[in-house]
Design goal:
By secondary structure, this protein is mostly beta strands. 14% of the residues lie in helices and 40% in strands. It has 2 helices and 4 strands, in the order αββββα. The chain has helices at 10-32, 157-160; strands spanning 73-100, 103-113, 116-125, 128-155. The strands form 2 sheets. A two-stranded antiparallel ribbon has the order 1-4.
C-alpha cells in the first residue's frame, strides 16, 4: 500500500497519539502525587533599566516635543549617532634570509649509542643566496562610522510629520580633496599606448 504525499502515515499517527497519552498520564500523576518535588521558581524579571543608552522618557500620554495631549501616538524616531568598529588591515615587513643552494653528498658516518647503531649522511654546502621575504603583519584600526539609533517617542499629529532637528548636514571636517592626475590622462580613463 502506497501513501499519498499529503496524508500522514498511519504508523506516525499512532506513535504521535501514544506519545500524547504518555505525556498526559505523566502530567496527571505529577499533579496527583503529593510527594512530587515542587517546580523550581523562576527568578523575577529585573526592574532596573539597562545601563547602556539614554533613559526612555515616561509614557504619560503627552507629546514629547510640544506637550500637547490631543491625538498623541507612538512613533519611531531616528537619531544619528556614531559607532566604533574595528577594521583588520594586513601589511607586511621585509626580512632578509639566506636560502642555501645545492649541497654535495660526501658520504655517511656511523654512530653507536644506547639506542643502537645509526648512520647520518654528510653534505658539503656550496653556496647560499640572500633573499628578501615579506612577513605578514596584522594591524587593527578602530574607526568611528555613522549609525542610526531608533527610539520610541510619543508625538501629537502635528509633530509626527515634522522632521526632528538633528545634526547639520555639513561634515565635521574639511571637504575631501580630489587628486588630479599629473600624466595628462583623464581620471579613470583608458591608457593610451
Amino acid at each position: 500500500m502506497q501513501d499519498s504525499p499529503g496524508k500522514p502515515r498511519p504508523n506516525a499517527l499512532l506513535a504521535a497519539g501514544l506519545a500524547g497519552i504518555a505525556w498526559l498520564t505523566a502530567a496527571v500523576a505529577a499533579v496527583d502525587d503529593p510527594a512530587a518535588p515542587e517546580p523550581i521558581p523562576r527568578p523575577a524579571p529585573s526592574t532596573t533599566a539597562p545601563a547602556a543608552g539614554p533613559p526612555e522618557p515616561a509614557r504619560d500620554g503627552r507629546c514629547d516635543r510640544c506637550g500637547a495631549c490631543e491625538r498623541v501616538g507612538t512613533v519611531c524616531v531616528k537619531r544619528l549617532t556614531e559607532k566604533e568598529v574595528t577594521k583588520v588591515c594586513w601589511g607586511y615587513r621585509c626580512e632578509q634570509v639566506c636560502i642555501p643552494g645545492p649541497s654535495i653528498f660526501i658520504g655517511t658516518r656511523h654512530h653507536k649509542d644506547d639506542c643502537g647503531c645509526w648512520t647520518c649522511r654528510l653534505w658539503r654546502p656550496t653556496c647560499a643566496e640572500v633573499i628578501t621575504r615579506r612577513v605578514p603583519e596584522k594591524q587593527e584600526v578602530k574607526r568611528k562610522v555613522p549609525a542610526v539609533a531608533w527610539t520610541v517617542e510619543e508625538r501629537c499629529c502635528e509633530c509626527r510629520h515634522e522632521p526632528r532637528p538633528t545634526r547639520s548636514a555639513e561634515p565635521d571636517g574639511p571637504p575631501a580633496k580630489e587628486t588630479a592626475r599629473t600624466d595628462g590622462r583623464p581620471q579613470g580613463g583608458p591608457r593610451s599606448p
